[in-house]
């Protein structure tokens, strides 16, 4: 069962598109509004592929980490729950795993209370917070997770919603610096240098809806892993990342993905 009592969510704003709800529409979900669907329909068809590839990467990475014995996960930018959820994947391997989900969209909280329910042996908690307040997230996460032991920090398709003027590297550094050795960073990010015309189209459509994006090159995405040890196969496109499982079908992608370990000496 979830631990604690979630706060009463603020009223959901259905007059403006929200990233979590647009993503839900791209995945074929029903928990979105006409304003979100309108954005999704204007995106190129590859946007649906990207959403699916992101989700599949998260599944593979979470399963591999659980197989390595990782039993604590901090998932920021959870989005609207879509089964199987991260805790379901992890707790199939490690039933006692503990997971903290974080998102800033009130609609996510509403669904989290019903759907993000732990196995009896483990625990899940949902925190309504913004990634731009990493200190606040960490304070609440410490009520569920033991930061003296390894934690997997999951930032799936989140950081490209933080343009450079919002200091995404500083945010990631603060989060990673709180992780003990043996922890992992799991990250996926939209590319600006793989399909530049499509990236520009997506950025413009989101901007028309009042949502700023900051797609990045491979070198720029790699900076989020500074001081960490990338695990094989390194920073690759989402369909190219797999460990301990059959290789996914080869397909084109505009998403970078990687998993890295916090070394024994900590981050530099």
TrEMBL record:
Q: What's the name of the protein? A: Methyltransferase
InterPro entries per the UniProt record, alphabetical: SAM-dependent_MTases_sf, SAM_dep_MeTrfase_SAV2177_type
| Region annotated Disordered, chain positions | 1-20
Stored Gene3D superfamilies: Vaccinia Virus protein VP39
Q: Where is the composition biased (Pro residues)?
A: 1-10
Species of the source: Streptomyces griseorubens
Q: What is the lineage of its organism?
A: Bacteria, Bacillati, Actinomycetota, Actinomycetes, Kitasatosporales
